[in-house]
Sequence to fold (111 residues):
Amino acid sequence: MRQRISTLGTHPIRTSAMLALIASSTLSACSNLDMNTVQIVNVEGYSVTVRTSANEPNTWAAFGTTIADRTQLTPAYLKRNITAIESVSGCKVLPELTTHSTVTTLAVVTC
Fold:
């Protein structure tokens, strides 16, 4: 008889990061994030709107300001959003606590 082994539980840091991401995603989906526009920045010739959460500390969102700024949802687009968040917040985005939905990047930062 073969025993099935889960690899998720074998690495404590990876497990913690996954649990934090799941908790963050659940929290974001279940709560209303009151977002305040902080700044509109130019990243690589594109306009990116950056917002901060009024009720979730260290939580930021970014998206292309106009339709033209978000027409192609590519890895470069998502990277611009992260660059904009880091630029405005002055903090590093935690990749394990970053989600992308449609045109918006939602990220938690650490200072």
In short: The CA atoms of residues 85 and 102 lie 17 Å apart. The two ends are 50 Å apart (CA to CA).
